[in-house]
Design brief:
The protein is of the alpha+beta class and 81 residues long. The chain is 40% helix and 12% strand. It contains two helices and two strands; from the N terminus they run αββα. The protein starts with 7 loop residues before the first helix and ends with a helix.
C-alpha cells in the first residue's frame, strides 16, 4: 500500500485535498502537526486515487487516529447485523 501512495496520481489527489483544506486539519483546525489524508471509506479493488474528492479528508495525526477508531467501531457494529 505504501508503494501506491508514492504514485503521482495519488500525490496529485493528496495535494488537492491539502489545498482544499488550506493545510489545516478538517477535524480540529490545527496547522501545527503532521497532516494526513484520510479515506472516509474503502472499497475493495479501488486504488487510493480512485476515490471522489468528497471521500478524502485532511486530518492531523490525532484526528486521523480518532477517525480510524470510529470507523473501526462502526464496522464491528455492522458486522453484528
Amino acid at each position: 500500500y505504501m508503494e501506491l501512495l508514492r504514485d503521482p496520481r495519488w500525490q496529485r489527489n493528496r495535494l488537492a485535498v491539502l489545498e482544499r483544506a488550506e493545510c489545516r486539519c478538517e477535524g480540529c483546525g490545527t496547522r501545527e502537526v503532521n497532516l494526513q489524508i484520510h479515506h472516509g471509506f474503502y472499497e475493495r479493488g479501488r486504488l487510493p486515487w480512485e476515490y471522489p474528492a468528497e471521500a478524502l479528508y485532511c486530518l492531523c495525526d490525532n484526528c486521523h487516529e480518532r477517525a480510524e477508531g470510529v470507523k473501526g467501531e462502526a464496522q464491528r457494529e455492522l458486522g453484528l447485523i
